[in-house]
Amino acid sequence: ISLMVYLKNLTAADFLLCLSLPLRITFYASKSAIVQQLYCSFGASALLLNMYASILFMGYIAVNRYLKIVHPSGTHILQSVRTAHIISVVTWVCLLAPAVIYTILFFITQKPLNSIPSCCDPFISASVSLFFTIIHTLSIIIFLVVFISLVFLYYSTSRRVLQAQQRQLASSDKLVKSRRNMLVLVSIFCVCFVPYHLVRLPSTFLTSSRSVVSVLNYIMEVTTMVAVFNICLDPVVYFFLSKTFRSRVRMVSWRGNIQQVNEQERAAVHCYSSELSQ
């Protein structure tokens, strides 16, 4: 189904985000100029690319679940697997394009440095800085659109649940489950991405005071870690929305319980045999 397409792409975004983290850690731990250039050109853009891929695919998942409520037969064009594949490809292309342009501009317009900087700002020219500001502005718009959409979809789902319960419809249980799934999405989205963007907005446009910028940069690092934490929380989304993932988790848990019981039985038999031998 189309939902699995979005879930797989969300998994891919999380995986690629994981791959970009070692470079970010090395950037802060190393004083190598090559590492600094690699992170400022490739690492930073890769982290943002995959973060906003996660944001967009969470939005697509929410829309998909809402359409499942409105069109339970799955006949809407946005519910088709082909449409999901097209949307996913277009999303990745639209995210990759500015990342590639930024990386190319970075190396073309890179400033010569006499010392190794502790941040990316000395590497960035005026043209790259302008492009970076434009990208961040568009990113904030993407976040706001997805955030407002998630809140609206959750509100609409809650209204449908209330109406179904008042009419005592048989589908009310399914709607309650859909509302729960939507709540999981909205909660994870808010916990991970809202703090980051609350800091990102002023840090992008307020550059007059060095002390303010310094504080914002520090807070930005904290909120970035919180945003990256969505890698750990997204499996909760998979568990609630994917029957296949849920059944596999339960199967692994069931096998683990059986193995534990078998080990306990072997230990009991061993103790009993030891007592008999004495």
TrEMBL record:
At the top level, the lineage of the source is Eukaryota
Report whether Transmembrane shows up as a keyword of the record.
yes
| UniProt keyword annotations, A-Z | Cell membrane, G-protein coupled receptor, Membrane, Receptor, Transducer, Transmembrane, Transmembrane helix
Q: Which PROSITE patterns match?
A: G_PROTEIN_RECEP_F1_1, G_PROTEIN_RECEP_F1_2
List where the protein spans the membrane. Answer: 12-30, 42-63, 84-108, 128-155, 181-198, 218-241
| Xref: Pfam families | 7tm_1
InterPro entries, from UniProt?
GPCR_Rhodpsn, GPCR_Rhodpsn_7TM
Q: What is its main location?
A: membrane
What sequence ranges are listed for the domain G-protein coupled receptors family 1 profile? Answer: 1-238
Q: Identify one Gene Ontology CC term for this UniProt entry.
A: plasma membrane
Q: Name one GO molecular function term.
A: G protein-coupled purinergic nucleotide receptor activity
Where found, per UniProt? Cell membrane
Q: How does it sit in the membrane?
A: Multi-pass membrane protein
Q: Which family does it belong to?
A: Belongs to the G-protein coupled receptor 1 family.
Cross-referenced PANTHER family: P2Y PURINOCEPTOR 14-LIKE, P2Y PURINOCEPTOR-RELATED G-PROTEIN COUPLED RECEPTOR
Protein name in UniProt: G-protein coupled receptors family 1 profile domain-containing protein
Upper lineage ranks?
Eukaryota, Metazoa, Chordata, Craniata, Vertebrata
Q: Which gene encodes it?
A: GPR20
